[in-house]
Amino acid sequence: MDKLVIQGGRRLSGSVTASGSKNSSLPIIAATLLTGNGTFVLNNIPDLQDIKTFTQLLNHLGAETRFAGNTMEISTSNVKNVQAPYELVKKMRASIYVLGPMLARFGTARVSLPGGCAFGPRPIDLHLMAMEKLGAKITIETGYIDATAEGGKLRGAHIDFPISSVGATGNALMAAVLAEGTTTIGNAAMEPEIETLSLFLNAMGADIRGIGTTELEIHGVDTLKATEFDNIFDRIEAGTLLAAAAITGGEVTVNGVIPEQLKSVLKKFVQAGCSVQTTGNSVTLKSPETLIPTDVTAKPYPSFPTDMQAQWIALMTRAKGTSHITDKIYHERFNHIPELNRLGAHIEIRKNQAVVHGPRSLSGTKVMSTDLRASASLVLAGLVAEGTTEVLRVYHLDRGYEKIEAKLQSLGADIRREQYKEFE
Ligand code: EPU
Description:
This protein is an alpha/beta fold. Helix content is 30%, strand content 26%. The protein contains 14 helices and 24 strands. The strands form six sheets. A four-stranded mixed beta sheet has the order 22-23-1-24, with helices on one face. A four-stranded mixed beta sheet has the order 2-15-17-16, with helices on one face. It is elongated, with a radius of gyration of 22 Å. The structure holds uridine-diphosphate-2(N-acetylglucosaminyl) butyric acid. Residues 23, 26, 94, 122-127, 163, 165-168, 189, 193, 305-307, 329-330, 372-373, 400 line the site of uridine-diphosphate-2(N-acetylglucosaminyl) butyric acid. Uridine-diphosphate-2(N-acetylglucosaminyl) butyric acid binds at residues 23, 26, 94, 122-127, 163, 165-168, 189, 193, 305-307, 329-330, 372-373, 400.
């Protein structure tokens, strides 16, 4: 297994380019299942374990894929199999994204129920509700979702989501683009990843209106075709790199971003005392002498993202005073806190809120990654901890951060990857 070994105390400086977004790549790749008409060329796809896992699922279904230099070519002309087995689905919850497109194109789909998750319950009831509204008959037996469209074709409907869900909105969109008639989606997620998926679907020939808002209107079309598409940047990776600059007292420019999509996070960096400057496609952050404590609530976009919550907690361990970080999306997403406390932080958990008492001097030790963003927070803490921090089980981090140690090294961090045996 791999671990990251970090010598803390280096001030980061320089510039780095954001990678392509993982969370928009996944639904875009799933959406290629909607048509066998041509070969897709997807640019700016990050080279990540989650993308490899999802590609394996597509290959299992019969898709042909090629990946080189962050460009993925996909043809789903030969897809005949509509079964997503447990062995592949269990590796990644986002596998549920194949349900909508397979049902829309083939009129039937069989997808294993995804398993549990490291940070609490993550149900899929809203995905199923959306498919049922579009006329699918759903049964769940022996751990599988069996979905069939009556008469082989989905029908437009009104779908009103009781809570905002990125995944369910994405699945509903992919199902609705080939449905007969008009679909409206109320309380749709408006995350940039959903906006990007909508633009991609329209580039394939779909007719989605209201893109980037919470009210979407989809006019079903008969056919779609393959297209070339440029994926957006990863706003969570970019935010994490900026947090690395802020926590080390550094000054870093992240290129290749759309600053508007980072607005809620940049606002908090400013409140924390950082100086933030943006151009059309870059953000430069300069850390203050002393970080100011901030209260943050993670909520759906355009609010502060839950995927930056763990990193923000790490950052606030260095702020002078008490910060409150609340997660309104995942109430139990706090696996990083005991590990951060082992590094010397003083953080309490009160229901879905972390109370961070700072500033604390952190000191390096071995810590364990438990999920993707928790791992990122431990790396951030390691960058300022005195001595050596070893972040074990880096495979969690590798699911979502492309070449993270190379990027941090290029900014001056002392971080290297080593192999180890789990019970050494
Ligand atoms: N929810 C339901 N029922 C559903 C679906 C969701 O109750 O059928 C609830 C969830 O339990 C949660 C809330 O709705 O409380 C929002 O979840 P959402 O569906 O938006 O999450 P997701 O689509 O499963 C994506 C990202 C996550 C990110 C969340 C929230 C991908 C592949 N995953 O998950 O990313 O945290 O949106 O923004 O896009 C990560 O990258 O580390 C990650 C976990």
